[in-house]
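Expect chain and fold; thus:
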Amino acid sequence: MKAILCKEYGPADKLVIEEVPSPEVKGRGVKVRVKAAGLNFPDTLIIENKYQFKPPLPFSPGGEMAGEVIEVGEKVTRFKIGDRVAGLTGHGAFAEEVVTAEDNLLPVPDGMSDEKAAAFTMVYGTSYHALKQRANLQPGETLLVLGASGGVGLATVELGKAMGARVIAAASSAEKLAVAKEAGADELINYSEEPLKETAKKLTKGKGVDVIYDPVGGDFTEQALRAMAWNGRHLIVGFAAGEIPKIPANLTLLKGCSVVGVFWGDFTRREPEVSAQNMMDLMKLFSEGKIDPKISAIYEFEDYEEALGALTGRKATGKVVLKVGS
């Protein structure tokens, strides 16, 4: 089979496509013929040895995919050959075949394309866990979403609306905000043209926002935190801006607020039953038409460098998907 390989750490131009042996299946493993792979910000980090998980070289990146089951281990009970599935791999999804544990997979419902299935699990899983378990978002609360036009940002806008929140979307351009508006955002902040703190305060009539979803980091974290309401929750999801911010601890005291970490990957391992229920909830929301993966672009397998560049250059509005097999 063909696989995109990281044989030395570095940017995407260090990756290569090579023929490699098909992976072996045993136990609760499921081998999937990959049809499409979803790209996520961790994919840009893992190839540069900057992510929490560090697979040994050489490895194929790609933590999310959709495809067809072609072989199952002897202990697998939930899937059979021919089933359409989507889910997580940790790494290895940028390949024609991959093996992952059956607990990492979901059945793909009728009406969901391979591309949308590949764009579903990670962004909605992360955002739903953040809003439900970590923030306990309540109907009527105000949710500020930073980086609202990216994959997790748009998922959060949709989920916030589905959970009954008033959603303020913040992004760096009018074009990106238009996508967030289409996803259901109630209010918009262009933080390249207007001050984030003051605008968020104005939109909430001075009260501040109840929940902040922050996958951006950098200077925007403190600006958003200063717009926090009493008893608010600031969700630390990632650092797409590249800089890990240092938060003034006195702000949490003065606002009586919480700064809450969101590490969805570890959550799925530590609390698999809760995670499984989350995914069932999300599939129900999809079937009800309340959420729908927004795909920014679909790239051919050989164009992986350009696809990853869309993430690192923050050009994507929605998910970037790599087409792997037919």
